[in-house]
Amino acid sequence: MKQDVLRQIEEARSRKHAFATVTDTGTGAQSVVRAHDTFGELNIDATQLAEIRSRTAADQSGVMDNGWFVRVYSPPARMVIVGAVHIAQALAPMAKLAGFDVIVIDPREAFVRSGSLGDAKAIVDWPDDGMKEVAPDSSTAVVTLTHDPKLDDPALAAALRSKAFYIGALGSKKTHAKRLARLTEMGFTDADMARIHGPVGLDINALTPAEIAVSIMAQVIEKLRAEAP
Amino acid sequence: MDPLAQLNAWVASGKKAALATVVQTWGSSPRPVGSHMAVLESGDFAGSVSGGCIEGAVVDAAREAIASGKPRLLEYGVSNEAAWEVGLACGGRVQVFVEPVTP
After folding, report:
1. What is the ipTM metric for this complex?
2. Same domain for A26 and A93?
3. CB contact under 8 A, B24 and A7
4. Are A13 and B70 an interchain contact pair (Cβ–Cβ within 8 Å)?
5. In tens digits, what is the pLDDT along chain A, a chain of 229 residues?
6. CA-based nearest distance A153→chain B, Å
7. What is the pLDDT of residue B86?
8. Potential cystine with A84: which of A106, A138, B1, B38 (Cβ 3.0-4.6 Å)?
9. Which segments of chain A does DSSP mark as H helices, in order?
């Protein structure tokens, strides 16, 4: 691997767009194939380029018909945590370890400042604006943890209007029933609200904040991998 | 640390290093295609290509690749006697591409 290629890989990874490297494993010759251009030593024809691009879109690393090896780099999935509360302090580093980019939204600066959220990105703002900044997509999980309707509800509404692959809301069955009633008033249908996991997390009798974080993390991964091709 | 970030940091500080990548797998193998392990000339490494079974052998191969400046495509598994000694406990087979970082 040429040092230039390594630099290009790191640069492309930092942009958080999907791309691929293609390697002739016989000679070691290599190219980086991005959405709009390529960089490197290989002469890639139109048919090969099409195969590389479709593998990139499908996140499918592997060996091509001509023997070249394609390594696809997809941007990490994201987890948006609403509420810099105790559970968030366990969930944020856990999600980071599992490969997620973690974003914590909470307008209460003291919560954000006092919480040890690892290297999660903190957005000190109301969830309405915070969720606009995040713009959840199909590789985003949204977890609300505040128990406070004026924080949780706008975040859940924004999540329901997005393609987020996972939506979870902390709260008992009773709290969740009240929440669903409020969301119904906001115009969401039963089908919309069926996307919300509430009470949040797999049922593993979790008790402590760290245990609850494990149960949430497990449910998010279950959903993430279920949707993988 | 993420193996590619580690590799980049090593190379940026003037150290000699190589990258090992899982290219193909057959049967049950613990790490998916594309898994990376960065290896430093001294033998330090970051990441994994098998979950512990063949890392030692891959580190040796990577140090040879650093010394020779040439990439190598290696296969470990039941069909390879040397690899059998190394022992891929799961009984699968894995192909690993080892490439030195060159100027």
Report:
1. 0.88
2. no
3. no
4. no
5. 999 999 999 999 999 899 999 999 999 999 999 999 999 999 999 999 999 999 999 999 999 999 999 999 999 999 999 999 999 999 999 999 999 999 999 999 988 887 678 789 999 999 999 999 999 999 999 999 999 999 999 999 999 999 999 999 999 999 999 999 999 999 999 999 999 999 999 999 999 999 999 999 999 999 999 855 4
6. 36
7. 55
8. A106
9. 3-14, 46-57, 86-97, 109-114, 127-134, 149-160, 173-185, 190-193, 209-226
Structural domain of B59 = 3-100
Q: Is B90 at the interface with chain A, CB within 8 A?
A: no
Looking at the fold, whether A103 and A184 belong to one and the same domain comes out as: yes
Q: Are residues A37 and A106 in the same domain?
A: no
**Could you say which DSSP state residue A66 is in?**
T
Taking the CA of residue A99 and the nearest CA in chain B, the distance in Å comes to 10
Residues 38-67 of B with CB under 8 A from A: none
Q: Which of B10, B72, B79 is nearest to B45 (CA)?
A: B10
Which among A124, A216, A196 has a CA at the least distance from the CA of A153? A196
Range of the domain at A48: 3-73
Nearest to B4 by CA among A113, A17, A32, A73: A73
Answer whether B11 sits within 8 Å of A23, measured CB to CB: no
Q: Do A6 and B73 touch (CB under 8 A)?
A: no
CB half-sphere exposure, A100, CA atoms < 13 A: 25
What is the dihedral sign for C-alpha A110, A111, A115, A118? negative
Q: Are residues A24 and A104 in the same domain?
A: no
Q: Are residues A194 and A210 in the same domain?
A: yes
pLDDT of residue B78: 47
Taking CB atoms and an 8 Å limit, are B8 and A2 in contact across chains? no
Question: Is the bond preceding residue A199 a cis peptide, omega within 30 degrees?
Answer: yes
Q: Contact at 8 Å (CB) between B83 and B50?
A: no
- Which residue type does A24 have? D
